[in-house]
Write a structure and sequence with these properties.
The protein is α+β, with helices and mostly antiparallel strands and about 120 residues long. The chain has a single domain, classed as Beta-lactamase (3-Layer(aba) Sandwich). About 25% of the residues lie in helices and about 20% in strands. The chain contains three helices and seven strands; from the N terminus they run H-E-E-H-E-E-E-E-E-H. The strands form three sheets. Strands 5-6-7 form a three-stranded antiparallel β-sheet, sandwiched between helices. Strands 1-2 form a two-stranded antiparallel ribbon. Strand 3 and strand 4 form a beta hairpin. The longest helix is centred in the N-terminal third of the chain and has 12 residues. The protein is globular and about 45 Å long.
């Protein structure tokens, strides 16, 4: 809610979850919307929302709430306080970072470096 009394739901942000829950969201997208044999999110939507698409002036590095840190098929969600869900389908890898601040770190570079050595 955007305020305690008579507020409205925030529909653009603000998931409050544990690291395990964020990892589950990453896993859902890693498996193209399939959760333990059940298609929860349309496979076509997962593919479209996490791939580079520069049509209509769109930036290649951001699609449908997902950041694309490279052009190698990986993608990540980024929270306002330094929370991240990084997914690399090629490496079958999910990383979650929780935090209250970003610090002086370029987190996408950290994730890319870890994935590269994985």
């Amino acid at each position: 809610m955007d305020k305690k009394d008579d507020g409205i739901e925030k529909t653009f942000c603000c998931l409050n979850a544990r690291d395990r829950d964020f990892a589950k969201l990453g896993r859902l997208y890693l498996h193209e919307g399939n959760w333990q044999g059940q298609q929860i999110v349309a496979k076509k939507w997962v593919q479209e929302s996490t791939q580079i698409d520069e049509t209509n002036g769109s930036a290649w590095y951001y699609q449908h709430q997902w950041w694309l840190p490279s052009k190698n098929g990986d993608f990540m969600a980024e929270g306002i306080l330094g929370q991240f869900i990084y997914v690399n389908p090629e490496k079958d890898l999910i990383m979650v970072r929780l935090g209250k601040k970003y610090g002086d770190t370029d987190w996408s570079s950290v994730f890319l470096s870890i994935a590269e050595s994985y």
